[in-house]
Write a structure and sequence with these properties.
CATH topology of the largest domain: DNA primase, PRIM domain
Radius of gyration: 39 Å
CATH class of the largest domain: Alpha Beta
Oligomer: single chain
Strand content: 15-25%
Structural class: alpha+beta
Number of domains: 4
CATH architecture of the largest domain: Alpha-Beta Complex
Largest sheet: 7 strands, antiparallel
């Protein structure tokens, strides 16, 4: 077959044609999402991998610096679209881009965030010998039809192998800028990226049995890059070419079903083998306990039976609480009936109840008889789209649940806690508890203090409690304390110190003489002065001080 713009070969069903695509058509076919950025990367002059640009499909071919780079050897583009990521800085959020020294374009790293998952791709390498694209592509496509796999959208001749690309699509969304509905690719959310990677691994395994090449097992992540259309493959000396095989686009669930990828589900059935041995406590050592295979130690002191029961209770409790509320009220009034039916549909779906539509219709007929069948179906459709959580405070507000009703419902919404006091109030309460204990037991231990505070609802570290005790004891034994007249009478020297300090020294709040700066130096001076004057003079000054 000659190297023409169209490859054509017959199969058992009909004749297939591969139409050569221009570089602009290839990029626009892959990156169809709104504001989708394409990363242009490759091997630089120094032999190191570097980034050249992050631009939209329109900007890519209007640049004056990129054409020379795009036609060079070893140039790649990202199969998944990236977005203009940001990073946190002192002044707020700033752009996380950097400028390429080669082209002057801003670049965003693929690792910081993908925006759209555009394709499921398989890289079939033929590095072991001579590569004939004609025979290789016919074998791959005939194998695809024989195995009942989806027919690829785009086929690529990379030089020493071929790529099969299945373009992805999602539900249509309205684009106000274009004024029409646009079929975007699926967004690169964490759950979809996990499913996408599993589909890629399954596709690699499906194409392991080809004679002309083998699927590359490293091509199993969403951040994969492919050769830019028209770029030179230095190893083979040929340019990379892309061909349109079909106009079909697939959804991720369709690709998962085709390659035998099943959803990851958590089993919540009770382990009957361990049911008799399980105590239901955190210290349970039944055979459901998980162990480290290398060290032989238990990973957690929680058995699998307890974890499974907790998983069931996560969604059974709110469903049971909603049914209790319905029994208490008899029926939901206007303003709450639609939200009650919607909540029931959401919780029934999370509990995997059979016949979701029928269960919701029976609930509405019993407790919301005024609702029409169309309104009930609308609530079920909305519940099927719900993927997040609904906070209990929102449920109380939606259904206008009173405190009396909350007290009658068991195991669902806990009553609101009393507001906590301020920090100053809490500190004062702690000091009062420890101060009362020190009056009764001056040798109170830290363990005893921690216990008393815990009984009052204060959970503090031992170091914090020790600091509280030191502070209280320091305040009680301070030599400058004048809070008790009895202590001043028992220690006349301290009164004299205060008198002499007030006459001859200006002391700071820390008890340090401002003349010398040495702590407690004035105490030694006052004692010498007291010895010189005599005890009678000291007592007279004390009496004079008391008369004052």
């Amino acid at each position: 077959m000659s190297a023409a713009t169209v490859y054509s070969f017959p199969t058992s069903s009909h004749r297939h044609e591969l139409i050569l695509m221009s570089p602009a058509e290839v990029i626009q076919a892959f990156h169809r999402g709104t504001d989708a950025l394409i990363n242009i990367e490759g091997i630089g002059d120094g032999g190191q991998w570097q980034m050249f640009a992050s631009a939209t499909a329109a900007e890519l071919f209007k640049s004056s610096t990129l054409p020379d780079v795009l036609n060079g050897p070893g140039i790649y583009f990202s199969l998944a679209s990236v977005y203009r990521s940001q990073r946190r800085a002192k002044g707020g959020m700033v752009s996380a881009s950097f400028v390429s020294p080669v082209t002057g374009h801003e670049c965003f790293k693929r690792e910081r965030g993908l925006q759209w998952l555009n394709t499921v791709s398989v890289d079939i390498d033929a590095h072991g010998g001579p590569f004939d694209f004609d025979s290789a592509v016919q074998e791959a496509l005939r194998y695809t039809l024989a195995a009942g796999l989806p027919f690829p959208s785009i086929v690529c001749n990379s030089g020493r192998g071929l790529w099969l690309h299945w373009l992805l699509t999602d539900r249509p969304e309205w684009n106000a800028r274009q004024g029409r509905a646009v079929n975007h690719p699926p967004g690169a959310y964490s759950n979809l990226r996990g499913l996408h990677s599993r589909i890629l691994r399954a596709a690699v395994q499906a194409y392991k049995g080809l004679r002309q090449g083998t699927a590359d097992s490293a091509c199993t992540d969403s951040q994969r890059v492919a050769r830019f259309p028209g770029s030179m493959n230095a190893a083979s000396g040929t340019r990379c070419q892309y061909y349109r095989a079909s106009d079909r686009k697939y959804t991720l669930p369709e690709m998962a079903e085709a390659f035998g990828v099943h959803a990851l589900k958590t089993s919540l059935e009770r382990d009957h083998v361990n049911a008799m041995e399980c105590t239901g406590q955190k210290s349970c050592k039944c055979s459901g306990q998980r162990w480290n295979e290398k060290t032989g130690k238990a990973l957690k002191p929680v058995c699998l039976s307890l974890l499974r029961s907790a998983g069931r209770a996560r969604w059974l409790r709110p469903l049971s609480g909603l049914r209790q509320l319905a029994e208490i009220r008899g029926k939901f009034s206007q303003g709450t009936r639609h939200k009650a039916v919607y909540l029931f549909a959401v919780l029934a779906r999370r509990n995997c109840l059979p016949d979701l539509q029928g269960q919701t219709e029976r609930f509405a007929a019993s407790y919301c008889p005024a609702m029409s069948a169309a309104a009930v179906r609308k609530c079920v459709r909305s519940a099927n789209k719900n993927t997040g959580r609904i906070r209990n405070a929102v449920i109380v507000d939606w259904l206008k649940i009173t405190d009396t009703e909350l007290s009658q419902i068991t195991g669902w919404i806990k009553p609101a806690r009393a507001p906590k006091g301020t920090r100053k109030t809490a500190i004062a309460a702690r000091r009062e508890i420890l101060s009362n204990e020190l009056k009764l037991n001056p040798k109170c231990s830290i363990r005893r203090a921690v216990f008393l505070l815990a009984q009052a609802g204060f959970c503090l570290k031992r170091s914090q409690v020790a600091e509280y005790l030191r502070s209280l004891r320091r305040d009680d034994v301070s030599p400058l304390s004048t809070s008790s007249e009895g202590q001043d009478r028992k220690n006349p020297v301290s009164v004299l110190i205060c008198i002499q300090g007030s006459k001859g020294h200006k002391r700071s709040n820390t008890g340090t003489s401002t003349e010398t700066g040495h702590p407690h130096q004035h105490i030694g001076q006052d004692k010498k002065l007291a010895a010189t004057i005599g005890i009678k003079t000291v007592m007279s000054e004390v009496l004079d001080m008391e008369n004052i």
